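User: Study the fold:
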Amino acid sequence: MRKRRRLLWLLLLAGSAGVSVFYWWWEGRLERSQDVPIRAAANRYRIDPALIKAIVWKESRFHPGARGKVGELGLMQIREDSAWEWADAERVPGFDHAHCVDPVTNTLAGTFYLARLLRRYLKTDDPVPYALADYNAGRANVLKWNQAAAATNSQLFIENIGFPGTKEYVRSVMARRKHYEGQLGPAPGGK
């Protein structure tokens, strides 16, 4: 009886370890599944691929078919108006917002939009937190939070973010970016 219990216990441990290993393998595979479109978009718009990958992680956990509450689509959760801005600027024929479930289309459109946001905050010590807050909560809210010294000091700006969810979004994407640094090669143009 004792041997059976030990054997059962060992089988349960081995089974749970196997599930953990499988989960770890599957999560890693999923994380790497979008590296090609992320690299392509990073090169096209000269944005750090680790930043793009961190946004994809936060927005969709690498699921191309992800859909948001207000019509956002795909890996980077692109809204229709942002998708159309990209399609118009790039002269994409026959574009429809539904095309944003395609990983290549989505990362190109999302990175185009992100590049615009980063350029908007070039006069700050680090445009990334401002661009991320804008990506998540919109320009009007960023204008409320970037008053006085927070207009150029990114650490003060992060502290001024008035929405807890947006503050967490900015911090988690920035932390995840560090996690991904070097995994996709260097940032194009040194950004």
